[in-house]
Amino acid sequence: MNKKYVYAALAFMIIGSLILSGCAKGTKHKLNSPHKLTITTTLYPLEYFTERIGGKHVSVSNVVPPGTDAHSFEPSTKDMIKISDSDAFIYNGTGIEGFADKVNETVKKEGVKTVKAAEGLTLEKTEHHDEVHDEHGDKDPHIWLDPVYSIQMAKNIEKALIDLNPKAKSDFQKNYRSLRKDLKRLDESFHLTVNESPNKEIIVSHAAYGYWEHRYGLKQIPVSGLSTSQEPSQKQLRALIKHAKAKHIRYVLLENSASDKVARVVEKETGAKTLKLRNLETLSPKDAEADEDYLSLMQKNVQVIKQALQ
């Protein structure tokens, strides 16, 4: 077994013992009490959906820091104590948060409600394999990039909040309907943009956009696999450059959180220009300072796609 995972497992055992033995001080709120619910999430979209639905009834914080790769993040003791003091822990549940299953089992014992946002969703298979898939199969975990799937994730969150605070049910339902309306408009924007574009292929820095392929008919050509740490072989890189030249692809789409050194090689060799995509695992500090949110950044992604497909 990889030493990294042995150390992580030991850390979770120690942290769990500390929590259960009472070293994590503080009184746990009882379910259905009128207090403001404290919710901990793992990925930025989950934080955004929970804030939109919960409104004034919730206080939400994300455990993965801005700009951090959720694939490799490991929570500290402080993070674990914070989660154990929450009313609910909301995680994606598609394998992208390697730490989530261990956290889930630990905090359940503390009476924390755990919510798998992806519950009930069928994940798409992917052709792009890497070490993430070696651990979690051949499924694409980036479901929050699909507005239609995001509606179902939001519905799961709404249900969980109602379970925690039934007295605020009408507010949660009203807020969910408002979010659902926004997500439907976003879905329409994607459909319209791709349908009206003459080209359907985009070069992306890593293979996070499979749901756009299946939902809207795009074709992603990834420089790397699903993990941002996965880089192509020289043979793969040459084939990608050859393809970009043959198809006269004019843009390479990079990400805030991904290493772009290989994509820069593609840019240099093909003469393609660089555009920026957000995969939205986390909200970058720069985007946070600019008061960007899930919807505004996804609309920017739509505009980037529109330019790239011309």
From TrEMBL:
InterPro entries: AdhesinB, Bact_metal-bind_prot9, Lipoprotein_PsaA-like, ZnuA-like. It comes from the Bacteria. Keywords: Signal, Transport. Pfam families: ZnuA (PF01297). Belongs to the bacterial solute-binding protein 9 family. This is Zinc ABC transporter substrate-binding protein. It comes from Fictibacillus terranigra.
